[in-house]
Write a structure and sequence with these properties.
CATH topology: Rossmann fold
Number of helices: 7
CATH superfamily: 5'-nuclease
Strand content: 5-15%
Order of helices and strands: EHHEHHEHHEEH
CATH architecture: 3-Layer(aba) Sandwich
Strand order of the largest sheet: 3-2-1-4-5
Helix content: 40-55%
Distance between the termini: 16 Å
Low-confidence stretches: none
Structural class: alpha/beta
Largest sheet: 5 strands, parallel
CATH class: Alpha Beta
Radius of gyration: 14 Å
Length: 141
């Protein structure tokens, strides 16, 4: 089974229905669900998304919990534990949060990482796609 790891920005694009980004995020979620891909997302992404959805989008705690509950039905939540944090600390990643995302994806043997910030994953040994690239790859397959 193909495992697709979604970066935090894709989760937020999808849940917040961000202008200019929601359509691609929704398409990615749909592709994963309809193609039988396993959707992976780190536990860290939910903490970050909760903050953004509350602070910037002014969503209530209850609304955020409902959005998360609906999303996780078709996703597997990956861990960010002490091993992931230690690997992230000693990594060559410039951004610590991106390192944690990467090592969480690595731990679950993700086949792809989908992000809007591909340059942040330059150290990745996992293929990294921007939304448009991943959609084109899947539609063209």
């Amino acid at each position: 089974m193909i495992k697709v790891f979604l970066d935090t920005n894709i989760l937020i694009d999808y849940l917040a229905q961000r202008t200019n980004f929601y359509q691609n995020a929704a398409r990615i979620v749909s592709i994963c669900r309809n193609s039988g891909f396993k959707t992976l997302i780190s536990s860290l992404s939910f903490a970050t998304a909760s903050y953004i959805l509350s602070a910037r989008n002014k969503l209530s705690s209850e609304t955020i919990k409902n959005l998360f509950n609906n999303f996780i039905v078709a996703a597997e939540i990956t861990l960010v534990d002490s091993l992931i944090v230690r690997k992230s600390i000693s990594s060559k990643f410039e951004d610590f949060e991106d390192a944690m995302q990467y090592y969480s994806a690595m731990h679950e043997n993700a086949d792809f990482i989908i992000t809007r910030n591909k340059a942040d994953f330059i150290e990745s040994s996992i293929p990294v796609y921007e939304p448009e690239e991943f959609i084109a790859k899947c539609v063209g397959a």
